[in-house]
Amino acid sequence: MTTVKIQCSCQGNYCCLDKTKCQCASQGGLCDYTVCQCSTCLNPLNVLQDYNYDLTLVANDPCMNNAMYKINDLLDYLYHEMIFPCCKEVAVLMSCVPGVVGCPNYTVCGRTYRYSWCTGMLCDEIIQPRNHCEACKVCRDSTYQHCKKCDKCYFAGITRLKCPTCQYEEIQKHQ
């Protein structure tokens, strides 16, 4: 990921956190510290880069991308302790994102997790995988899916039932 080649218009305090005010953030890019006039640049991508996160992994995580601009102090948030449900082991969120991570006790339990920024929970990749709907911009239970026709999420179960709204509409069309 590279710095967006635009004139950063940020000035004052904390405007880089607001995608509506910061051209760099609104385009999903880093603020150039040599150009940015914000006294405290909080563009989440800059914060993550400063802590050596792989920004390609961050860019490929829609749940993280949707949420990180809504968090006032991302660095503080990343230092929250997470409890792994399998073994009750504790780790800071910073070590759990982005992507899939093994439990700190992985050699014993063998469990892997992905963090849901929507729910604030670690989701077991086998038992209850994270299911982030990019259209609705929210995590749902893994038994839900998004209907492209209705543009809503619905309970599909483990057998992936058809959308109840579309089935109803199809029946109505044939009557």
Structure explained in plain terms:
29% of the residues are buried. A hairpin with a 4-residue loop joins strand 10 (144-147) and strand 11. Helices cover 25% and strands 22% of the residues. It contains seven helices and eleven strands. The model is unreliable at 168-175 (pLDDT under 50). The strands form five sheets. It has a three-stranded antiparallel beta sheet, with no helix packed on it. The chain has a two-stranded parallel ribbon with strand order 1-2. A two-stranded antiparallel sheet has the order 3-4. The protein is of the alpha+beta class and 175 residues long.
Secondary structure elements and pairings:
Blueprint: E1 11-13, H1 23-26, E2 37-40, H2 44-50, H3 55-59, H4 62-68, H5 74-78, E3 81-83, E4 90-92, E5 100-102, H6 106-109, E6 112-116, E7 121-124, E8 131-133, E9 138-140, E10 144-147, E11 152-155, H7 164-174
Parallel strand pairs: 1-2
Antiparallel strand pairs: 3-4, 5-6, 6-7, 8-9, 10-11
Task: Report the sheet with the most strands, covering strand number, pairing sense and barrel closure.
Answer: 3 strands, antiparallel
Strand fraction band? 15-25%
Number of helices: 7
Q: In sequence order, what are the helices and strands, one letter per element?
A: EHEHHHHEEEHEEEEEEH
Residue share in helix: 10-25%
The overall pLDDT average reads 83
Calculate the terminal CA-CA distance, rounded to whole Å. 54 Å
Low-confidence regions: 168-175
Shape: flat
Structural class: alpha+beta
Radius of gyration, CA atoms, in whole angstroms: 20 Å
| Major sheet: arrangement of strands | 5-6-7
Number of strands: 11
